[in-house]
Amino acid sequence: MIKVAIVGTGTVSKHLQQEFAATQVVEVTAVLQSRDETRSDSLKELEANKQDKRADMYIIAVSDDAIAKVSEQFSNTEKLVVHTSGSVAMHVLPTGIRRGVFYPLQTFSKDRAVDFQAVPICVEAENKEDLVLLKRLGAAVSQTVYEISSEQRKSLHLGAVFVNNFTNHMYQIGHGICEQNDVPFDILKPLIKETSAKIDSLEPLKAQTGPAKRGDEKTIENQLGQLTNVTHKEVYRILTKSIKETYGKEL
Amino acid sequence: MIKVAIVGTGTVSKHLQQEFAATQVVEVTAVLQSRDETRSDSLKELEANKQDKRADMYIIAVSDDAIAKVSEQFSNTEKLVVHTSGSVAMHVLPTGIRRGVFYPLQTFSKDRAVDFQAVPICVEAENKEDLVLLKRLGAAVSQTVYEISSEQRKSLHLGAVFVNNFTNHMYQIGHGICEQNDVPFDILKPLIKETSAKIDSLEPLKAQTGPAKRGDEKTIENQLGQLTNVTHKEVYRILTKSIKETYGKEL
């Protein structure tokens, strides 16, 4: 049995609690509150609870900015201490202790179930035994566990901003255009699904279509004229430019 | 039986031929070649074939730019003439004839099968009987048929550029970042799937996450520093600005 204490009570913490509870090999010995790391009562509670001797490791699942501060509480522990962030380096955790990262690469929403078995877990640790432990922990809840350095994780997180955050913004602009012109956004949903399904069989470089790829200036000019939001016009322009550059078109 | 002659031999034509052939209610009476509308032999062939009296309608499935030119060949027909484009208005077809549009809103690739039943068909026609005919034709191959005006179709097509073409470019930038930093793009695929699956339960405005949404300037600056491609930096900047504006953040 791997015994973990989870620090934090946000969305990632809740998903981890739930997933670990459903396994036969992981036990959550404690969930330590540290929602607001500036509140002294919350820190005191953390102080008391971290004496919990049962846990093999502490999983710090708090917001990126709070990781350094919250983890200071664990600067004397002999247990493994990991955080769950995509963008924070491992060395932000206190020096001199056993450090690691347990990063589930997925977008978690409060109200939406996630198939955790399909979520890639990126693990990192300073020593070999801890890496083995984190791989076992990952394998208990997911089919794919990757050993990823802090440097690689930073790149993955940047990639994730493009394929997730920025893509969702594309959906949002599309949604707005539909609303403004009184057509149901539902009509675009099968296209959205097909665009993402395609990545399994066709790499994005080969899947590109559309006026920018074709260099179809007439359509580009017409569509720029259709857009009423100045920033969305800029978005259209720079993405068109970026696609053209990708395919070596003259600008 | 609805009898159609299809003009053009590209990807959309091939998909339509295949889908119509699989139904019990549509017969493709002819496929007329017009791949290069400037070649006189191709036009002559078209001229000869368009005398085909069996078809109830001509479906002009050629590139956007060629629609006007190719459809001139049908300026004297008594049959219904439709094109299949998202961005071309119905009135581009010759005046004085029965005109319409049969636009399957999906991204078609040569080498990839598409579940046509899930593809929304947007139809438009000048007279009521033709609209009924196009709706029947659509229902023969798809579960969803929408009556959409030329103006609305233009908006849908613009929306499609954002949710499909630009989204695929986001995947492509993400793919490049992974390659450059020696991490497998596969790690991002479950995230891509979840981002698109979310639109069924959560509208994009509510699904937005990430540094731009949070106004997390530290991460934004770090990530801009990570990008080596100048145009991709611009893309990151303008999309961050656009997301901030959407959520009313100070710039």
List its traits.
homodimer, Rossmann fold, 251 residues, 10 helices, N-(1-d-carboxylethyl)-l-norvaline Dehydrogenase, domain 2
Number of helices, where a helix is a run of at least 4 consecutive DSSP H or I residues of chain A:
10
Can you tell me the CATH class of the largest domain in chain A?
A: Alpha Beta
Percent in strands of chain A: 5-15%
Low-confidence blocks of residues of chain A:
none
Q: What does this protein look like?
A:
Two copies of one chain form a homodimer. Chain A has 251 residues and is α/β, with parallel strands linked by helices. The first copy, chain A, contains ten helices and seven strands. At the A-B interface, helix 5, helix 6, helix 7, helix 8 and helix 9 of A face helix 5, helix 6, helix 7, helix 8 and helix 9 of B.
